[in-house]
Amino acid sequence: MSTEKKCNFTSIGGQAVIEGIMMRGPKTMATAVRTPGGEITIKKSPVTSIGNKYPILKLPFIRGSVNFVEMMLTGYKTLEYSADQAGLEDETEEPSKFEIWFKNTFGDKGFSVLMTISALLGVLLALLLFIYLPTAIVSGFEFITKLQLDAFRSLIEGILRIAIFTVYVLAVSRMKEIRRTFEYHGAEHKTIFCYEQGLELTPENARKMKRLHPRCGTSFLLIAMVCGILVGSLVNFLIAPLAPPTIVRVLLKLVILPVVVGISYEVIKFAGRHDNTFTRIISAPGMWFQRLTTKEPDDSMLEVAIAALKAVLPDTPEWEGAVTQADFAEEQTEKTESAEQEQADESENETDAQ
What we know:
The chain is of the alpha+beta class and about 350 residues long. The protein is about 65% helix and about 5% strand. It has twelve helices and four strands; from the N terminus they run E-E-E-E-H-H-H-H-H-H-H-H-H-H-H-H. A four-stranded antiparallel sheet has the order 1-2-3-4. Helix 9 crosses helix 10. The longest helix is centred in the middle third of the chain and has 36 residues, at about 110-145. The radius of gyration is 24 Å and the shape is globular.
């Protein structure tokens, strides 16, 4: 029997960036970054989607791939912005000959070009590690042992993929910059939980929240890997008589990737909007894995997350009693009026003293 808990669910989501957080609301997206000077800068932009122009792309199992591509592009842009605001572009050492050539060749666009090259290399590395390598290992094992693993091939590849991903995350988490990003990741989750609980958005309240969230991208990746095992098993069964080479198997995995992403998106979306025994079971592996990709944030990180969240809250409540942009505008007006009144009172007291 399903036991569903009564709680609020928001459509707002986000991601950690360099020294900051991007939040995406129903109509607005905002990236908040802590600058080297300690200030919080916020860049807002309207949420746009090709699905608004072509409604068919919003249909279940199709919208997942569309959303995945759009979030990849958005993530690249927000990372570029956060890197610039966090001061990574500033020169702190004597530039090398290559850096001088690069700057002279690309000019002011050099940093954007560098980010683009980094993104492309990142995609190629992901394809190599998580698609080609597991397939090549299993194919090599079959060639050496003369065994046919068709019935278990997809399962073995999936286990290898998860193992490689785990080792990769553990390795990069040892880097100081990546660990800070994981801490901002935790701040994002805590802040969204604070909002869903209907509490005032303050570091004190957010600090008490859980840092593991069922709608996290980490959970999505893990669910996608499991879905890949199931879909891959069907594909392997169909192509087994053909005994295709490794490169063909890799290409087939790329072809079925939209199917895997579409199914995974619907699963994670359902789990994020329901809290019952079934959703807690399917979310458990991803929640466990988030212990690697999220860390406990400090209050300064929670402040950045709160600033980003406040910037994307909808104009109308998502549920009864939910705070809106109007509530924060009113709160800000009251704070401004109170500060002005205090300043006027201090000036009056100084005049009386004279």
